[in-house]
């Protein structure tokens, strides 16, 4: 089974995991690493490697981070290409974590990563635009 590692600024990761588990129930093979300004870069990378080693059961680990360019993402990216099988997806939102949690995590890491990315993209909506389209459709009947 593919492991899930949530790496975020502060307590965001723990909060989004708790919210997800309220919706889908307990999630196996998941952990959260909260990054703050009290840790050195070396300490964070060392923690990342330990978490990945613990979560990897042979299929790899999907690392979900909060935003591209931030420390959680930048340091997680340092694991790509090492002897660890990981993929990193940034821009974590609730639909992405729900998709990750409910996916068949016995499949390939790259396949699941694509589905999780798509779930995140598809979940972003501007409600006013949707309402506007519905109103336009209603007036053209």
**Count of alpha/pi helices:** 6
pLDDT < 50 stretches: none
CATH class: Alpha Beta
Order of helices and strands: EHEHEHEHHH
Query: Biggest sheet: strands side by side, in what order?
Result: 2-1-3-4
Q: Roughly how many Å is the radius of gyration?
A: 17 Å
The overall average pLDDT, rounded, is 93
- Give the CATH H-level superfamily: Phosphotransferase system, mannose-type IIA component
Q: What is the total number of structural domains?
A: 1
Which bin fits the share of residues in helices? 40-55%
Number of strands: 4
Strand content: 15-25%
What structural category arises from helix and sheet content?
A: alpha/beta
Main β-sheet description: 4 strands, parallel
Distance between the termini: 51 Å
CATH architecture: 3-Layer(aba) Sandwich
The coarse silhouette is globular
CATH fold call: Rossmann fold
How does the SSE layout of this entry go?
Layout: E1 3-9, H1 12-24, E2 30-35, H2 41-55, E3 61-65, H3 71-77, E4 86-89, H4 94-102, H5 109-122, H6 127-139
Parallel strand pairs: 1-2, 1-3, 3-4
